[in-house]
Design a protein that fits this description.
- By secondary structure, this protein is α/β, with parallel strands linked by helices.
- The protein has three domains: 288 residues, no CATH class; 34 residues, no CATH class; 174 residues, Glucose Oxidase, domain 1.
- 36% of the residues lie in helices and 13% in strands.
- The protein has 22 helices and 16 strands.
- A hairpin with a 4-residue loop joins strand 15 and strand 16.
- Helix 9 crosses helix 21 and helix 11 packs across helix 14.
- The longest helix has 16 residues.
- The protein is globular, with a radius of gyration of 24 Å.
């Protein structure tokens, strides 16, 4: 293992110092909970009888005796969403393999799992970000019965895994493993899908033709195959050591995937306080593992959503990170993967080329990962450089390839796609923002053009269809932040802006909202802070203001203007963004939510008094 990179070491130490009070408070709470022993032994007979009433006779006896571990399952199963449908079969598999070793498992609770792919451009998208905090609270409720010795988190997609993580962190005295469903097999290519979307945006094909292409892409159970937030989640769980090694991108519905489910359940039981190898969540997640997750995002060109989610996840474990940490690490972490939207390949092709085991091995060898962290497999990340396979009916791990299987998809540290990471922080008189620079071609990474201010995503689309946007401009879409309307993703802007860019116009997007984890192609400064509703400058930009967005230099500014601080914010009617589709129920979230760089959380994790 190479000596750790100096920047990696200094950023980790800075995070450790910044987090000392909150982390110490968190660790004190978790250690106190762990020393109390199995909670099932301390509940009353009435409590225990209620907890076991629905179990079969054998499980009732095992729960009453208390000798074997009882594993709580928190699941995001539903059969509407492809990524979560396979999870329906998991509890029976888990219960079966655990019963064979004298252990038990119970579904502790379910959490909602909405899909941004379904709600893009719809009113429900305004609930998307806040669903993460609902999931976190639902996870806490699920585990609050104090009859579990460990837990399994069954989830995959955008807000689900971060929410499960935040809730799990508050029960960090337990061993907790994460268990995904795996991706669906490949459909039409991502380039073809993007081409058809742009054709539809230009009015060249019918809605039926668009639907046929989309259905050929999203076609079966399993996670969508582009490298958006869902698959970035799985990368992070792997690099943080919360998965069984190699779990992330094994296809749904395969024998190997079923074997991973079985072995994950057995590992959860093995690592409880009732066994010889106790590995609680709070020992797996520390400052080093959070830094590893940031590095993984940079090295693979991961989702911009994690400049919000990972901040919130870290705070749930008492660790305070900010965008400066992301930015500094980006300067030393090379981009090793080209997966859509910053390449043509999908995650199945990435996995075949060597996948995460290759990436993790390369980063460890280059001193760009903390390889000495604790994981659910024990000390060190070395097991995560191996690949799972079935030998007969038994799962085993073999060493990863030492060479990339496809240099157009995956490269070594010595020959990366880019010397710096896939995510960039922007600063300037407009505020702070982030951009997924790996998905933008170098020729489009700097733009200086007049602003056109839009009232909404639909306003952009309507003016595009009316032929009013054939010019160089920066689309400014304010009042899309968490306080305003829940910070929806503005994914539907990519096709029309992409069409204009292809015509030769210089275009970019500036917004205090989010883009999809699959965003790319057009330079987009997103998550702008302060948001417009917090008197942010983005809410004071006027048509014709010259905006400079420079992703290479990290600049976002109004050029030649020094009066923006004294300007009045433009008027914006939010009533239409706060009613219907259940949005009324989230008014409390909107009033309490923090800024994007603080994780856009609606509760106060990270304050030492709250730990």
């Amino acid at each position: 293992m190479a000596q750790l990179n100096e920047t990696l070491t200094s950023v980790t130490e800075r995070i450790r110092e910044r987090s000392r009070k909150t982390r110490d408070a968190y660790m004190h709470q978790m250690r106190a909970a762990a020393t109390e022993g199995p909670h099932r032994s301390s509940v009353s007979c009435g409590n225990l009888a209620h907890a076991a009433a629905a179990c079969n006779t054998a499980d009732k006896k095992a729960l009453a005796k208390g000798g074997g571990p009882n594993i709580g399952i928190v699941t995001s199963y539903n059969d509407m969403l492809s990524a979560h449908q396979p999870l329906g079969a998991y509890p029976d598999i888990i219960k079966r393999v655990l019963s064979e070793i004298g252990s038990t498992a119970q579904i502790a609770g379910g959490v909602p799992a909405m899909c941004d792919g379904v709600t893009q451009g719809q009113p429900g998208m305004d609930l998307s970000l806040f669903s993460r905090d609902v999931i976190a609270m639902a996870t806490a409720v699920s585990l609050s019965h104090n009859v579990f010795d460990g837990a399994l988190m069954l989830g995959v997609c955008d807000k689900i895994v971060p929410g499960l993580f935040i809730g799990a962190a508050r029960f960090g005295h337990l061993p907790i493993l994460f268990l995904p469903a795996g991706p669906m097999t490949s459909g039409i290519t991502n380039d073809e899908k993007a081409r058809v979307r742009q054709q539809y945006a230009k009015g060249e094909i019918s809605r039926d033709e668009l639907l046929a292409a989309e259905s050929a892409s999203y076609h079966s159970p399993g996670t969508c195959t582009f490298y958006g937030t869902a698959n970035s989640n799985q990368m992070m769980m792997e690099v943080m050591g919360l998965h069984l090694p190699g779990s992330a991108f094994v296809n749904a519905g395969t024998k190997l995937r079923e074997a991973i489910v079985e072995q994950t359940a057995l590992r959860a039981a093995t690592t409880t306080a009732l066994g010889a190898e106790f590995i609680p969540f709070y020992e797996v997640i520390d400052e080093r593992s959070i830094v590893n997750a940031i590095i993984g995002l940079h090295a693979t060109g991961g989702s911009t959503n994690h400049l919000i989610h990972l901040v919130a996840m870290a705070r749930a474990a008492g660790i305070i990170i900010n965008w400066d940490d992301f930015s500094e690490l980006s300067s030393v972490v090379p981009l090793l993967a080209k997966v859509y939207p910053n390449g043509a390949a999908d995650v199945n092709q990435f996995h075949e080329a060597g996948g995460l085991s290759y990436v993790i091995g390369e980063l460890i060898d280059a001193g760009l990962l903390h390889g000495d962290v604790m994981t659910v497999m024990g000390a060190g990340l070395t097991p995560y450089t191996k690949i799972p396979e079935l030998v007969g009916e038994t799962i085993s791990w073999r060493g990863a390839a030492t060479e990339t299987g496809n240099s157009e998809i995956l490269r070594p540290v010595k020959d990366p796609f880019s010397a710096t990471g896939g995510l960039q922080v922007l600063d300037g008189n407009i505020g702070r923002a982030v951009i997924k620079v790996s998905a933008v071609k170098p020729a489009h990474r700097m733009i200086e053009a007049p602003a056109i201010v839009f009232s909404s995503q639909q306003d952009v689309i309507d003016r595009f269809k009316a032929g009013k946007l054939n010019r160089d401009f920066v689309a400014v879409v304010p009042f899309q932040g968490p306080k305003a309307n829940g910070m929806p993703e503005l994914h539907k802007l990519t096709p029309p802006l992409g069409v204009l860019q292809d015509k030769g116009f210089k275009v970019a997007l500036v917004t205090d909202g989010r883009m999809s984890g699959a965003s790319g192609k057009v330079p987009a400064a997103i998550h702008v802070m302060p948001e417009a509703l917090n008197n942010g400058v983005i809410g004071k930009i006027a048509d014709g203001d010259i905006i400079r967005l420079d992703a290479e230099q990290g600049i976002l500014e109004i050029v030649g203007s020094d009066d923006f601080e004294s300007r009045q914010s433009i008027t914006h009617d939010l009533r239409g963004d706060r009613n219907g589709s259940g949005r009324e129920l989230f008014s409390g979230f909107r009033s309490l939510v923090g800024g994007a760089e603080e994780g856009a959380m609606a509760f106060g994790l990270g304050d030492e008094d709250d730990n």
